[in-house]
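Reply to dn_fold:

You asked what the input looked like. This is it:
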Amino acid sequence: MPESSHNSSTSPFTRPLPPNPSLENLRKQAKSLLKSVLTNEPDALAEIDALNLRSRSSNPGGFVLSDAQFVFARRYGFTSWTTLKNHVEVVSRYSAWPNALKSADDSPSLVDRFISLACLNYANDHVSRREKARELFAANPLIANKNIFAAATIGDHIAVRELTKQEPALARVQGGPHNWKPLLYATYSRLNSARKNDSTLEVARVLLDHGGDPNAGFLWDGNYLFTALTGVFGEGERGPLHQPQHQYCDELARLLLQAGADPNDSQTLYNRMFTGGTRHLELLFEFGLGNRADGVWYQRLGERLDSPEEMIRQQVAWAAKYNQWERMRVLIKHDADLNGMDSRFKKAPYELAMLSGNTEMAEFLLANGAMKTSLSDVDAFSAACLRADSEQAQALLAKHPTLIDELGPMRSELLNLAAESDKRDAIRLMHKLGFDLNERKRTVALHSAAMSGNLDMAKLLIELGADPSIRDEEFNAKPLGWAEYGQHTDVVEYLKE
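and this is what came back:
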């Protein structure tokens, strides 16, 4: 199988791969770099000198195309041109692009349109899409007969069994509106058909019995690995309303894991971080979460995937920052490292808990082996604000009057964190200290309150001067739009007033 790896060292020339990378374009660019080096262009020479290439070129005649290709590999964080080429081939084969996933909803093919609407795609998920899919199915009940992808989406295991009996290879073929394997349509389906004999769980059994791959997956936007297991567990940034778990979540997840699905599933862990649940963690730990980065996707993508150890560090960090007690207890039970820094927050769990105003969580971490670290004045001020410790916050301000300015963009992050966590006393204190409740970094605090359904927090923010007409930077939506998306009726009605 192709493998891919990258060098974690950085240089002024290191950059991410462009979206939808083309091997042919990379070859042309390598030839262009070769020409630039041979004509002594300063920027090109600086890059090869940074890699010490002029003195180590394997060609006695000087810098050649293979050297230029090596430079290109290092530019994008790979150890060699071969590993870069293999990675691009994997991306080309398994990628699913958000715009293509969205456009499938409007396919001229009725069956493709139905399948697309019935499945989560992490591009435009909304409860209304599933409702439209059910309407299409009710009006066209024979749609399951169109192909194995439709039958898998519906859960028509009798049709799937008959099709794979006649042609076993159908269990592994890619196709349908997203060019997925049948198992992915079954695991991402949220149709939840009410017909007596329909069951996507039974479809999965049939597909696995006929050689279906329990590690089937795709690269969302060419970067993020979504597997069959990811689809089963569901959830994500849009929440369990619009991205619910599978109808047969626990049974189907166990079936996949027993069949060999890799429990080190980074996207599953990310999607499930927001609600604080732990059932998925217990199941993944049962099958080896945190151990052995040797699954099929590690062989394909190498260090482009988080290591199992990094996945656990991220879970601990998130639980510490967002005060997720049940999750932290599960992680501690499974011997998670309480002192490691994850790649996202780059702080130890104890420090994250303190910075988030979660004093009891910080003490709990200390009692279970975490090391105590001292906070800078800026961090101590942030922590005092979030735990609504007016005395310490004002004492620190008296000592360093510029602390609020020194926070920079962190001011907005603190306000958003307090709003989504319903820390009303923290909001009152920060407002009293001079924080601008309408300061925006992607969103303002009122967006977070609206999306979280915190009516009392929304009322408090507006009473203190928050602007309900301000729009976020990503979707250009007012807080009302965020409340409507989350279907928080009481917040919607209040903001409409």
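Strands lie at 95-96, 217-220, 224-227.
Hope that clears it up.
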